[in-house]
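Quick one, tokens below. Sequence please?
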């Protein structure tokens, strides 16, 4: 068995079950990793894995990206068994979902994933139980006795039979629903302790749906707490230190006490998340367009202030700014486009790079855009972008990469070896100094094996000796 997929409605307890299973595995010597998918982060390729996969494994080759990611997780386990928990896997981006499937099918890890009933899952997640041998577990609701124990934990003591029956019948055994019902009547003073027993006052309250209950409870929080929840609904996870600065300690403490948020430790970079995805869904659905725009701009400013922006940070900030109708900084757009290419999302990379080009970003953006097109096998589009740069690049370092990218596209993508050769010959006239000629020789040396029509035109032994003797070449190139 390659894993388990726990499927259940929101609030039944599938996340808790998955965490408990991983905790038990850890006690038995299994290395574990936890990945939390969220609606807010669904647009960031590989975003849920940001905390467990290093940035340097990224590649714009999908197969290589998955291979390196699996290898990095194997390294995490140090040769021992590994279990990976994926919460709300129905919210994963396509690349993350493909990685989860690869982990399961390659036996690199035992996968425990949760999905919400009735939600459309990525094909790769459905393949876990359809093709990869994972067991699909349909989680049932709580019994009346289990519901009573949960409610008594919430209120802190035994509860009368009438109150217990009302909560169980109303919630249908849904753990989150029962939890919200108990908190709701408790906060409204409708559930009071009398002689050591918690009793309902003035009969049973009017029944309400789970979403209505959550909406009513969130409507009662202080403005600063609501702002915190709104920010998280559009941008979780966020770091503790930046929220302390933006919101203050008191609202964070109050929201944690109300069990609206979770804080992953006391460190400044500890992640702050909503305690349940439904909180974010309810809040986000109630946001007006102007309020949502204001929050996205605030999120962008908060994350941009980090000392070091990761690739995922750049992607998130660009997404917020674009959704707010603003143009991200050009350098960030280019970085985000490159990060999208390296994270298995070249369509997103093309969109971001096109925005950068249209805003005047120049050569870097055009090279990234061309690469996005090449990854998706749109070689004509890639060649059109690169052809516009012919002879216009001012840096020899950049020109070398440009030539490699363009010649490979012409030869392999478009099957135009004569045009590839013509590009190479024109490039010889871009600079007249010997250093440029040696750089061109490096390009030729790397590609000669591919371009059969040019075979024999270069003395490879002589060229190799010249390359190794040329101290101006990068160390990594000379070693190749």
């Amino acid at each position: 068995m390659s894993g388990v997929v726990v499927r259940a409605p929101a609030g039944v307890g599938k996340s808790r079950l998955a965490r408990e299973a991983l905790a038990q595995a850890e006690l038995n010597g299994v290395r574990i990793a936890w990945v939390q998918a969220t609606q807010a982060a669904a647009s960031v390729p590989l975003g849920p894995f940001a905390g467990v996969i290093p940035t340097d494994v990224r590649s714009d080759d999908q197969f290589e990206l998955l291979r390196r990611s699996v290898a990095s997780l194997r390294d995490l386990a140090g040769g021992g068994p590994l279990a990976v928990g994926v919460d709300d896997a129905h919210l994963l981006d396509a690349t993350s979902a493909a990685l989860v499937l690869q982990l399961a099918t390659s036996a690199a890890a035992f996968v425990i994933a949760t999905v919400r009933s009735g939600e459309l899952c990525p094909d790769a997640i459905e393949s876990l139980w359809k093709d990869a041998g994972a067991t699909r577990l349909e989680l049932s609701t709580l019994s009346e006795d289990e519901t009573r124990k949960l409610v008594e934990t919430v209120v802190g003591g035994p509860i009368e039979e009438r109150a217990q029956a009302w909560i169980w019948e109303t919630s249908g055994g849904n753990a989150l629903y029962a939890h919200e019902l108990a908190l709701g009547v408790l906060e409204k003073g409708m559930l009071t302790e009398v002689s050591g027993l918690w009793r309902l006052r003035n009969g049973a309250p009017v029944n309400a749906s789970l979403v209505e209950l959550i909406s009513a409870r969130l409507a009662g929080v202080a403005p600063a707490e609501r702002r915190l929840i709104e920010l998280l609904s559009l941008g979780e996870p966020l770091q503790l230190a930046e929220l302390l600065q933006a919101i203050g300690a008191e609202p964070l403490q109050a929201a944690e006490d109300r069990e609206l948020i979770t804080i992953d430790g006391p460190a400044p970079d500890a992640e702050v998340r909503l305690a349940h995805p439904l909180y974010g869904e309810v809040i986000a659905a109630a946001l007006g367009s102007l309020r949502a725009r204001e929050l996205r701009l605030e999120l962008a400013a908060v994350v941009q202030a980090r000392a070091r922006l990761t690739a995922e940070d750049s992607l998130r900030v660009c997404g917020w700014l674009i959704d707010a109708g603003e143009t991200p900084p050009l350098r960030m757009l280019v970085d985000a486009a490159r990060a999208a290419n390296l994270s298995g999302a070249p369509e997103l990379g093309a969109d971001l790079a096109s925005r950068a080009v249209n805003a005047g970003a120049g050569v870097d953006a055009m090279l990234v855009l061309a690469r996005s097109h090449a990854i998706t096998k749109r070689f004509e589009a890639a060649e059109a972008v690169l052809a516009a740069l012919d002879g216009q690049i001012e840096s020899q370092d950049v020109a070398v990469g440009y030539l490699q990218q363009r010649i490979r596209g012409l030869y392999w993508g478009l099957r135009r070896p004569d045009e590839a050769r013509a590009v190479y010959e024109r490039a010889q006239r871009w600079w007249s100094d010997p250093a440029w000629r040696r750089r061109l020789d490096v390009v030729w040396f790397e590609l000669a094996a591919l371009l059969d029509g040019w075979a024999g035109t270069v003395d490879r032994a002589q060229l190799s000796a010249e390359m190794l003797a040329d101290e101006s070449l990068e160390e990594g190139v000379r070693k190749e």
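The beta strands are 3-8, 31-36, 82-87, 110-116, 135-138, 191-194, 197-200, 238-239, 261-263, 271-274. The chain is about 55% helix and 10% strand.
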